[in-house]
Amino acid sequence: MAGSTLEIKDLHVEIEGKEILKGVNLTIKGGEFHAVMGPNGTGKSTLASAIMGHPKYEVTKGSITLDGKDVLEMEVDERARAGLFLAMQYPSEISGVTNSDFLRSSINARREEGNEIPLMQFIKEMDGTMDLLEMDKNMAQRYLNEGFSGGEKKRNEILQLMMLKPSIAILDEIDSGLDIDALKVVSKGINKMRSDEFGCLIITHYQRLLNYITPDHVHVMMQGRVVKSGGPELAERLEAEGYDWIKQELGIEDETVGQEA
Amino acid sequence: MTVETQLPYDRQYVSQFADGRGEPEWMKNLRLKALEEAESLPMPKPEKTRINNWNFTRFEHDVKGEAITSLDDLPENIRVFVDQENISKNLIVQRNHSVAYQSLSDELKDKGVIFTDILTAMKEHSDLVEKYFMKDAAKVHENRLTALHAALLNGGVFLYVPKNVVIEEPVQVIFWQEDDEAALYNHVLLVADTGSEVTYVENYISHNTEKESVANIISEVIAMDQARVSYGAVDNFASGTTAYMNRRGVAYRDAKIEWALGQMNDGNTISENLTNLMGDNSYADAKAVSVGRGNQSQNFVSKIVHYGKHSEGYILQHGVMKDRASSIFNGIGKIEHGASKSNAEQESRVLMLSSGARGDANPILLIDEDDVTAGHAASVGRVDPIQLYYLMSRGISQKEAERLIIHGFLAPVVKEIPIEAVKEQLTQVIEGKVY
Ligand SMILES: Nc1ncnc2c1ncn2[C@@H]1O[C@H](COP(=O)(O)OP(=O)(O)OP(=O)(O)O)[C@@H](O)[C@H]1O
Ligand SMILES: [Mg+2]
To answer: Which three-class secondary structure state does DSSP give residue A97?
Structure first.
């Protein structure tokens, strides 16, 4: 079996009564890397949050399925255990809970009671992954994201990704706030995940991330929809020319949500 | 408006009680005077908490407890408070009103450390105890309950650390109210002489859910110049015990007192922690956590008063409230005139787990000096849904995610408890109270 399939059909999402997503269609399969680009405020994070089940977002129409199973019926934790993962644009800080306890609980949540990951094995895996991501070992015993710098938070999200090994991951601006070296390290981690068993949706503003992680498909979001899709060359053109040509092509004046084409 | 505080213990009883224990004359007199004063003194008036209906009168005052020859004789639910791998050589177990077990390492004895039950201390170190007992940290006539404490004192310990003696291992006391009706009128007197250092940990335990009793407890910590005292406590009285607890500290020049209090009583509780920073450069760190559940009503005061220049006081109170429990958290930082360059900081946070619970955080800063810094933060809120979402997005169930957040919220104090077994017990108690 070649990984999982996440299928998003005609997805409409509201936040506090305001419609943000207005019919998103997207399919991500194991083995595929998709990039989603688009100007600020066009609904990219909303899409990611709706897939994961953020409490503030309400799906009013459409469907999300993972291997045919209705994701919208699932609680947030069930979605995660079904194989979804979201590296968040703004990860929460949780005081008093060490990074390592949190990760261990997350791993054990996927395992049967009585079959928890042996502590030594866990420590070994975490040490190895932190080495790969060039993270300071102290980060394991620090409180979850508390006082982490922007870049450290992003690395920590990738640490979780690598330890939890989801079948479909969404990475929301994993590259923002990263210096060039960190960008390389994080990309290395993400590329290491690449296999037929792993599909990924990468939300980014910058081609520079895609220089390290080559996407198979590139999508552009505007006004709460995917307005254009293509291959890696689409991202390169956006980098060079910006979004105006797409707006012209589609007759869009204001690309943010709330505006109609 | 009648508050029933008439006790069945009169002058004759107290006098006989003191004689029976062979106490020095000064203590007997202090008791009798206190008993007399108690009649006219008012009850304490905790801010925003009504204590009219609380039981302060129904209890047994003099209940023996059997001695044990080895810690293995303790029941499991008490023994767990002792580190099995690294049994403290400096340990007292008080059972009702008797000492059941007592040990102090030869090394500390040789250095002049005194660690004994308060009765023995009054007899064997009468002058030393008299010098500090309810003089500087707590006073007999503060209110009716402090006076009754002095009159009816029936347990406690005395710990004296001589000049420049540094005790590495924690000193531990377990106060076990084994009898469901035995009242603990317990007094802890800890004197850390100049330049000394000590870590002290105490546990209060009872299991009386049906029968009623009273705990009227005063701890006094005297930290002389340059002394350092780290004081950890886990209060774990069952719902039948009404608790009035006062933990007081006095810090002289360059002295440091650090409190880590796990306030886990299940009954109605008034718990006050007050440190007077008398000396220049003195320092107090008062950390406390509590969990309220059922119908219990609790009132917590954490107060630091600055007299010395350059003195520093830090208050942190975190409380978790569930069911229909009600708690008031008062944080008071007071800087007296002349205590220039002092710093008073406080943080009070209350986490509400149910809509029927009540939690008030009252930060108070009273400042009589210009050249100081001070700050406070207070909040009353629910578990943050975005934090829950983040944890759950990693596959953790809602229940487990809440558990992590609550333990995390209480961690600032739990992690400060110096004895592993006690820390573990505090964690278990929290677990038991929250779920
Ligand atoms: N609570 C809210 N009430 C109203 N509008 C909201 C609310 N939260 C978000 N929005 C709006 O939804 C739109 C989409 O936001 P979203 O975060 O999905 O954008 P994005 O494409 O991820 O942008 P960026 O590139 O800046 O991260 C924005 O216009 C935002 O202002
Ligand atoms: Mg976004």
So the answer is: strand
**Amino acid identity, residue B419?**
I
Cα A44 to ligand 1 centroid, rounded to whole Å? 8
pLDDT digits (tens, 9 = 90+) for B31-87: 999 999 999 999 999 999 999 999 999 999 999 888 998 899 999 999 999 887 777
Is A128 among the domain residues?
A: no
ipTM given for this complex:
0.96
Using H for helix, E for strand and C for coil, what is the string for A145-194? CCCCCHHHHHHHHHHHHHHHCCCEEEEECCCCCCCHHHHHHHHHHHHHHC
- Owning domain of residue A85: 5-97+167-250
Output the six-digit token pair for A17: 């009564």
**Pick among A56, A105, A141 to test the B interface (most B CBs inside 10 A):** A105
| A200-240 pLDDT tens trace | 999 999 888 999 999 999 999 999 999 999 999 999 999 89
Q: Give how many domains chain A has, as a whole number.
A: 1
Helix or strand run (H / E) with residue B30:
helix B25-40
Residues 6+ apart with CB under 8 A from B253: B225, B226, B279, B280, B281, B282, B308
Q: Is the pLDDT reported for residue A102 higher than 80?
A: yes
Tell me the shortest Cα–Cα distance from A109 to chain B, in angstroms. Answer: 6
- CA–CA separation, B272 and B304 (whole Å): 11
A35 belongs to a structural domain: yes
Beta bridge partners of A10: none
Structural contact between residues A177 and A154, judged by C-beta atoms closer than 8 angstroms: yes
With respect to residue A22, please indicate whether it lies within any of the assigned structural domains.
Answer: yes
- Which residue, judged by its Cα, is nearest atom 8 of ligand 1? A15
Is A41 inside a domain boundary? yes
CATH number for the domain spanning A19: value is 3.40.50.300
Mutate to test the pocket of ligand 1, among A13, A24, A40, A221 (most ligand atoms within 8 A of CB): A40
- What token pair was written down for B291? 């969990």
DSSP sequence for B164-212: T-B--SPEEEEEEE-STTB-B-EEEEEEE-TT-EEEEEEEEEE--SSS-
Averaged over A92-97, what is the pLDDT? 96
